[in-house]
Fold glycine--tRNA ligase.
Amino acid sequence: MNSHKKRERERERASERASETTPRQHMPITASEGSAGFAAAKPDLDDLIKRRFFYRQAFEIYGGVGGFYTYGPPGAAVKQNLLALWRKHFVIEENLMEVDDTNIMPHDVLLTSGHVERFNDFIVKDSSDGNKFYRADKLLEEVMDARMAEKGLSSEKLVEYEKVKAQADAYSKEQISAVFKQYGIKAPETGADLTEPEEFNLMFATPIGPTGMVQGYLRPETAQGIFLNFKFCLEQNAGVVPFGIAQVGKAFRNEIAPRSGLIRQREFTQAEIEFFVHPEKKAHPKFGDISGLELLLFASDQQLAAQPATRMTLGAAVAAGTVANETLAFFIGRTYLFLVRAGCRPENIRFRQHLPDEMAHYACDCWDAEIEMSLGWVECVGIADRSAFDLTVHSQATGTSLTAQQTLDTPIKIERFCLTKKSLAAIGKHFKKDAKLVTASLSEMSADALKALKATAEAKGVCSLEVEGQSFEISNELLQVESITETQHVEVFTPNVIEPSFGIDRILTAIYEHTFSLRADDSAASEKPADGGDKKKKADKKEGDKVKAGVLALPAEIAPYKCVVLPLDQRVVAQYGNLLAMARAGLAENGLQYKVDESGASIGRRYARADELGIPYAITIDFDSLDGGSLVGTATLRERDSTQQVRLPLADIPAIIAKLSSSHQLTWEDVLASYSTGGTSSSSAGVAAAGDKLDYLRKHAVAATLNDAVNALAETQPEDPIAWLSAHLASMKSQ
Amino acid sequence: MNSHKKRERERERASERASETTPRQHMPITASEGSAGFAAAKPDLDDLIKRRFFYRQAFEIYGGVGGFYTYGPPGAAVKQNLLALWRKHFVIEENLMEVDDTNIMPHDVLLTSGHVERFNDFIVKDSSDGNKFYRADKLLEEVMDARMAEKGLSSEKLVEYEKVKAQADAYSKEQISAVFKQYGIKAPETGADLTEPEEFNLMFATPIGPTGMVQGYLRPETAQGIFLNFKFCLEQNAGVVPFGIAQVGKAFRNEIAPRSGLIRQREFTQAEIEFFVHPEKKAHPKFGDISGLELLLFASDQQLAAQPATRMTLGAAVAAGTVANETLAFFIGRTYLFLVRAGCRPENIRFRQHLPDEMAHYACDCWDAEIEMSLGWVECVGIADRSAFDLTVHSQATGTSLTAQQTLDTPIKIERFCLTKKSLAAIGKHFKKDAKLVTASLSEMSADALKALKATAEAKGVCSLEVEGQSFEISNELLQVESITETQHVEVFTPNVIEPSFGIDRILTAIYEHTFSLRADDSAASEKPADGGDKKKKADKKEGDKVKAGVLALPAEIAPYKCVVLPLDQRVVAQYGNLLAMARAGLAENGLQYKVDESGASIGRRYARADELGIPYAITIDFDSLDGGSLVGTATLRERDSTQQVRLPLADIPAIIAKLSSSHQLTWEDVLASYSTGGTSSSSAGVAAAGDKLDYLRKHAVAATLNDAVNALAETQPEDPIAWLSAHLASMKSQ
């Protein structure tokens, strides 16, 4: 378990950004108690996930292909809702721009980004059968595991094998080849020799156009589509930096060995932000909003010193220099808030800083949001200060200026050392047809080079200039230099970029693991509605025996369906048509996803089915709804996590669920308080009384009368409004 | 123009469903007046689209690649909002399931669907230069166009060329090769011979896994991912048919000659529904909701008789048999309502029925929603009854049962003709080791075949049975047959499917063309705020001269930003920070996308900029908002299409915009009525009075007092509530 998790964790980093080419050596990851708890619940969760079709292997009726998954109805809805929440939390609340670029990208773009040359894993093949292949680092790890398990191993050897294993994904091609020879590693299935390690590019290649005139690839990340459009987005932002661009979409990696469900797929969903800032202005105006957040931070020096992660506020972390700057810390804080809002458990989230040799050479600082789940701590979000790297390389490759400008508060003076205009003109005249070549070369020369040239000319009376293989002699008289002071009012700079990059499918995995539980002794299945009785006593035994009562306590905002509508008994189906139609219309009008369960199962069993889908609210239409005197037109509303119920007018329910399922302040406790008199547990009497009150007010059209009165009041604006209202109401004919 | 459009239209159908293999011969499409109007406005619209970065060619800084587009911030937001509206209109309101399948699909799936073998265009190459290639049908059309333009052409020849051109995309490989030879068509650039036409498959191929062990393709349509998961979705629906599954996502076609902007891209977005029904039960329970809709229908017999399309209700169309069934008609109606809700002009939408030889052989009926735009009538949605074709072929290819069951109201009796059990046993015994082979073959035999076999046996005393190349002699004594009557309680059937398939990018093109206009004499740019004065008179002349005042009257539901926040004058920036922060928080809380325009441009110019982005509402924070006595804390709200303004408390605005931008009933007229006294045009006095009234009520906490009183009222439930309230208020201490 331990070593399995460790390898998993190490692997997490191998296919990160292609351009991270510095060797990586990872700290061993220790499985925690939390991880073991999630692992124990995993078989039941996996059963639920597949049985209710949250997701399953893609193309299953064709036998499936590794690394591809299909999200079924509840899973696709949760993913949609998670992305909507992400857009609300980041794009809207941080007022970012969003672009929607293509999945297929041409060779040149990905050559610049480094993916064509460096987005590789090493592969070795069985020399007796080329169809048997292995990812070199994974095979090496397995061989080392096997050797460490051998009996009578010296502690020296144990350390050696452990070290090789830890390095496996950091070796260069030559190194890994040497290691394979040193340990005499053979093809595991046949015992034949292995071929030399070859680089295997992880991008899916596909030619564009009928003659494959342009080599295309499926994008390995969504970030490049942002950099390509930086210039056009900056224009839309009226040239003002800072600003951020987001992109959400599919990314593709042709993994040699896909595994771990949604964690390492060949096709997955990313949500990335590139937040562009001035290189020297990385403070963030809203830093104060998150500076008090205390998070579990695992700084690189703690990792190197084998110390545990510690809780620390982001304010303190920036002050201490642990986190490089405010903007980076701001997005760490916002990421944490997002993950918790989406349903991840706060205590299972930590932020791990990349080690110095783990970061790309150009990166200033990088933190991963790691979420503890059954596999151990899994990187789910990377938040990096990537400096000006991406814009710089694309600018160089295309000759397009990818800079921003800002007016300087105080203009600055710059000293420049150059040839005098007169001297340039004279040199031009002197060299005739070569004039352009010589003067261009002199103009581009650095101050130091020019000074050196002038020094030579002064010493020898002449100097020689090499341009494109030709040599030109310039006399000291011709070479007249000067220092010029220029005043600069505008600063041109290549923005730095802070990049929060979200692995949506990994976060979904964490959400399912963190919200899943089994109800104690199958309580939901034996639950009864608040009143109206459970007339469906025949026990659905077969289903009840086979299925454990799993619950997904998904936050209402991301739950696949916001409610389920349940007729209490099939026998009333004919009568309840109108009420159902009313509920459907109300739910659709409020944009709420919902389900209707008209099966013959007991009400408790149907609650349990809804719990499995993470449905937060259940509306039960019972006999009283149809024929219960003052209760006609009411229904019971049940909340998933507390299993509390309350009776209220069916017409009120859709708007209430809409509020409960959004960021609106209304809480379930408010609903209980409004509609029941008896505190948290709703008694029949209390419920009846609440329905009764509403009936009374409705019957007498109290609201309409009061609205008219208040309008008249506002028109008149008397000194004492309440006295005035009292008199006004007295003068009205009571209805 | 005319012939260009005609070719465009004909081309629309060429790359439809791969399995539509019957030859197609298309009716000529006549450009209408509407189309010419859109074409005239197109250059201004295109300028706006690119300048404000709704979309532009992808990878532009790398020179671009044909057929790929990037949606910039406003365009990506409009697309997101359109998809959200689609989900609300179909997935939620029709209670469909949604799946999220992969973009990469394996060979076997697309072999079954017909795409591997038949999703082709013909390509011809210049024999002197293999890099010069042409789509055969397009080249043929161009050659015919050129010949028709020759002088002195006989009318006979003209008809011949016209006919060849009209057939161009319907020829088989042999036919088109013969036609090229007949007319001696050469490579247009070099005059060299052309190669024989080759089939070019339009799918993007990409190998999966390191040895390309599985041939993969990018999906050419989203529909296949639905059929693959029919079985698992049916399980989630408790086995009940009818039900529908939707999928939204990218689709990919490696077009030889991409063109017409978003209309024919290599990567595009589809939204498809497969609605599964019993083959003989295609009525729809909600048909009554749309049966009264009168639409422009262009039935196939009208097209063949060269008659115009006619207006007809869907109820009448189904009654007359023009539309094949209620479910098909229901989705035609819902599609129409969606397109109008999204911003398409009703008068520019028609539904064209496929001609009998244009439909796939298995399809019962098929209608395209065609939208009139600058190119002519463009197919944007296809709505087809595809019978049981897709489920049948996938079931056959995989050996997976893709059927549904339903309990029969009245069990039916079925006569079966078969061998007696005794006879089967005896035959088994007789043939020993071949027993299984022989009895299996006899059991699977049809009644007719078995009857024929028995007849032979009776006539000759013996009959012979061929199984897998072996011959078995069976005596008449052994072959004992009987008729059995079986009672069937459950019917097993392969559902038929009604498929509405939406081309999202085409619909977006239509929406932009239909909502775009130029303001008469640049009125927005000279607009002033309701009061507070326009202190920014310096005329931004440069911008004003270059840019015409375009407006996108996008429905608020799909507008990229729901409002723009404008400080009236940059000089107040320091003071208005708090108000802006309040507006931002309120807008974000309501999940509203918004922009802030703090540029120094005049207020009119900034309104004009917002109009270009289709922003429906502008909030102007002016001097009175900050320092206007009773107006402090208010702002003006301007509506884009009417350019009317009203002043109201800033705190109220976000919730109002949220309602105006959703399917909530609140209208702009309601807002005007609530907050201004002077009818539609808001006078300063009226605005002040409205703010004043609210101030008065707030100051005296009238709402809180009344809430308490109403709660007490509901508790007491007196006979005369108004009299009681009057007394109760009188007894309260006035505040």
In short: Confidence is low (pLDDT under 50) at residues 1-31, 531-547, 677-688 of chain B. Residues 73-92 of chain B form the longest helix (20 residues).
